[in-house]
Write a structure and sequence with these properties.
Shape: globular
Bound molecules: pyridoxal-5'-phosphate
Radius of gyration: 22 Å
Structural class: alpha/beta
Number of strands: 12
Helix content: 25-40%
Length: 405
């Protein structure tokens, strides 16, 4: 008990601090109400406007609004004709959706390892390429851009299409180019290239549920748009306007993945505030970085000089050898101090479906498995206040001091 004097006290908060919360303003609320009053509650003029705004913001020729990033990734692979017998390279450190959509099309996801920063390990990707490999799906993990140079080099060497899972990366840059921008085509040199963003409730900007596909490829864009609305011929949504006609043709057995005007109304206003959100996240992350750098039992997210990090997630790593508790207990201790956390992600290859059906051992992606054991995502979002950040830091300090080995 002599030591206890050195342990800073547990923090005392009145309210639980969730790990993520959206920032919805009055403008968003009014825009949604306007949709409800107007009668345009499904895909309509606001979706068109939102797509146009994304084209301008990202710098791309085509933007296709969809019901989720998941359905966008699905449309991307479907438009690339991915099906039975094909293999798609997916980093294991991602949300299950990235791999699930490959399975939905009858193809096989090949799960590969990641670097310490959580982004796809190019050697692991290279080693898994076979004559069946058609696509590589890098994930800009936590909001830090992947090393696109080496990814597109690999894609060019093996003639692969690239579908970037940019669920965490709207508003981020790679070497000065916005993620999803057509200006990154110089890396692709003519290879099919598609980017998909997520506007899920916890993401850097939200439409509740929603996603956006970008590409500069006319043919793929047209096909994804048709596939996302039952396979009906172009601009089928116009059939309910004076400009439209009752007649349409189904040219493919498509899907139902369109976005609604209610979602797009949210998105139009969230997009205007996105750069401000990102700035706040980066400022908060810098505060965490400075504070956690003083604690030898934890390490801060790795960053790279040539890339931006927009901190969709702030992933703290625990040095388990210096602590007497594991990550799960660490999370429980934070919860006791009313701090919410999450884990991003349980590597896909560890989930029973993938482990049992595709035969992955835990060590098949050893780095991801080891990162998984030691990581947790701390609360980081624009709605947090200075005191919330201080509470998180002090809660971590308390636990580390209490369970220092
Ligand atoms: C959130 C997320 C998705 C899925 O996004 P939805 O919009 O919820 O479908 C896909 N990939 C990653 C990496 C994600 O974090």
């Amino acid at each position: 008990m002599i030591q206890s004097a050195q342990i800073p006290p547990a923090i005392e908060r009145e309210n639980f601090l969730p790990y993520a919360l959206p920032m919805i303003g009055e403008e968003e609320i009014e825009e949604v109400v306007d949709s409800l009053r107007s009668g345009w509650i499904t895909t309509g003029p606001k979706v068109k406007r939102f797509e146009g705004a994304i084209c301008d913001y990202v710098g791309t020729k085509h933007a296709i609004a969809v019901s989720a990033c998941t359905t966008g990734l699905h449309m991307a692979l479907a438009a690339l004709d991915i099906g039975p017998g094909d293999e798609v390279i997916v980093p294991t450190m991602t949300f299950c959706a990235t791999a699930n959509v490959v399975v939905h099309l009858g193809a096989t996801p090949i799960l590969v390892d990641v670097y310490d920063d959580g982004n796809i390990d190019i050697q692991s990707a290279k080693a898994s390429i076979s004559s069946k490999t058609k696509v590589i799906m890098p994930v800009h993990y936590a909001g830090q851009a992947c090393n696109l140079e080496e990814i597109y080099q690999l894609a060019r060497d093996h003639n692969l299409a690239v579908v970037e899972d940019a669920a965490h990366a709207i508003g981020n840059h790679y070497r000065g180019h916005k993620i999803g921008s057509d200006s990154l085509d110089e890396l692709a040199k003519g290879l099919p290239r598609i980017t998909v963003f997520s506007f899920y409730a916890t993401k850097n900007m939200t439409t509740g549920e929603g996603g956006m596909i970008t590409t500069d490829n006319d043919e793929l864009a047209s096909r994804m748009r048709i596939l996302s609305l039952h396979g009906m011929s172009r601009d089928a949504w116009k059939r309910y306007t004076s400009a439209g006609s009752w007649y349409y043709e189904v040219v493919e057995a498509g899907y139902k993945s369109n976005m609604t005007d209610i979602q797009a109304g949210l998105g139009l206003h969230q997009l205007k505030r996105l750069d401000g959100f990102v700035e706040t996240r980066q400022k908060y992350a810098a505060f965490y970085d400075a504070e956690f750098a003083k604690i030898p039992e934890v390490s801060t997210p790795p960053v790279h000089q040539d890339r931006d990090h927009i901190y969709h997630l702030y992933v703290l790593r625990l040095d388990l050898e210096k602590l007497t508790i594991d990550r799960g207990q660490f999370i429980e201790e934070l919860k006791e101090q009313k701090i919410g956390t999450s884990v991003h992600f349980i590597p896909v290859h560890i989930h029973p479906y993938y482990r049992d059906n595709l035969g992955y051992s835990r060590d098949a992606c050893a780095n991801a498995a080891s990162i998984y054991d030691s990581m947790l995502s701390l609360p980081l979002y624009p709605k947090m206040e200075q005191q919330d950040l201080i509470d998180v830091v002090n809660a971590v300090k308390h636990i580390v001091a209490k369970y220092r080995r």
